[in-house]
Structure formats: structure tokens, C-alpha cells
Amino acid sequence: MSIQNQNSLTDVNLFPETDYKLIGEYAGQKLLLIGKTNGYGDPIVATSATPCEPSREELYAYDLYELMKHSQEQLKITEKI
Question: At the top level of its lineage, which domain of life is listed (predicted)?
């Protein structure tokens, strides 16, 4: 699994793939916690369309708070971040 936009992420601590955590749903897809920003610890998330584990899927990372501000899609958080 790879992060498509990893080069554009600055001051972000991405977790090892084994530590990605399912925290909810976004636009009908699984929402994974994949890291945190270094400064404030803001959550970095990615969506996964794979029904099981997203082992070979290419993910795209988002700052969770930016995603919440700018998205028109429904976002549901089901786990503690």
C-alpha cells in the first residue's frame, strides 16, 4: 500500500502500515487514521475502498480537519482518534 501524495505531506508523521486504524466512514468508504501532524498532532487520514485490509491499494492522505471543512460528503467517525 502506498500514499499517492506522500511527497506533498510536510511535517507529518505517517504510521507504519500495520498501525493504520479504521476510525469511520467517508463517502461510503472506510476512513483510516494513517498519521498525525508533527506540530499539533492533527489526524491524517486516508480512504479505502477495499472491503478487507487495504494491502495493495494506493491511498490518498488528507488532514482530517481540512477534509471536514471542505467536503460535501458525509463523514462519520466511529472510533476515538
Answer: Bacteria
